[in-house]
Amino acid sequence: MKDIVSQINDVHRHVGSRTVPEGEARTVLLRRTYDAAVEDVWDACTDPARISRWFLPVSGDLKLGGHYQLEGNAGGEILRCEPPGLLRVSWVMGENPGFSEVEVRLTPEGEERTVFELEHAAVVPPEFWEEFGPGATGVGWDLGVLGLGLHLRGGSIGDPSAWEATDEAREFMTRSSEAWGAAYESSGAPAEAVASAVRATTGFYAPERPEDT
Fold first, then answer.
1. Which partner from 31, 35, 197, 201 sits 20 to 30 angstroms from 126, CA to CA?
2. pTM of the full predicted structure?
């Protein structure tokens, strides 16, 4: 569990918003420094063979202006690709996508360290945001950032479906939900709204099991 706590604390989280033509987009930002050269981190984030080892299998025309599809998850268009520092894609889920974009920014910090930033901006239904806050998206990205970090160190969580049922995974997702609650409160959200969103997010990712009651 100490490693899990360390992984949570290694990430800086920020919650914000910005105006886009489609309306007000909510933003979640994750920042973490990896002990790896920027070229290696870029390759891990753009090589489909490597992406499948720490995130999800991906297919499509993987070049600027092309379209990608993550297995069982989002797809979209590759909007910007400037190696080894910037990747922006649209992030489409379902048949009514609305505005949703993910941008990854990499900044070298010496030869063997890289500052990784991921920002997800999306126009979401107000009732969904009121129920879950930033954690609905943030916990999922925390899992991705965890997987990338393990991959860059030569490891992995193994079978994601099996791992997500473990006590270790439940602890990670619970602490991630709480960390996003703290970031939400720092953005100016009322304490009651934060507490409610954390409960809902934790209940979604790590619901109580019969043995827990």
1. 31
2. 0.94
**Domain limits, the chain:** 2-205
Gap between the Cα atoms of 39 and 138, Å rounded: 25
* Residue whose token pair is 């995130």: 55
DSSP 56: -
What does the block give as tokens for 157? 């969580």
Q: Which fold has domain 2-205?
A: Alpha-D-Glucose-1,6-Bisphosphate; Chain A, domain 4 (3.30.530)
Pull the structure tokens for residue 107: 């900044």
| Backbone torsion region of residue 72, taken as left when φ is above 0, otherwise alpha when ψ lies between -120 and 50, otherwise beta | left
Please state, in angstroms and as integers, the Cα–Cα distance from residue 92 to each residue in 69, 117, 118, 133, 198, following that order: 9, 20, 17, 19, 25
pLDDT for residue 1 is more than 80: no
- What angle is formed at CA 138 by the lines to CA 137 and CA 142, rounded to 5 degrees? 125
Q: Which of 183, 189, 186, 202 is nearest to 132 (CA)?
A: 202
Sheet order of strands, 114-122 included: 12-20, 23-34, 114-122, 100-108, 86-90, 75-82, 67-70, 58-60
pLDDT digits (tens, 9 = 90+) for 108-137: 999 999 999 999 999 999 999 999 999 999
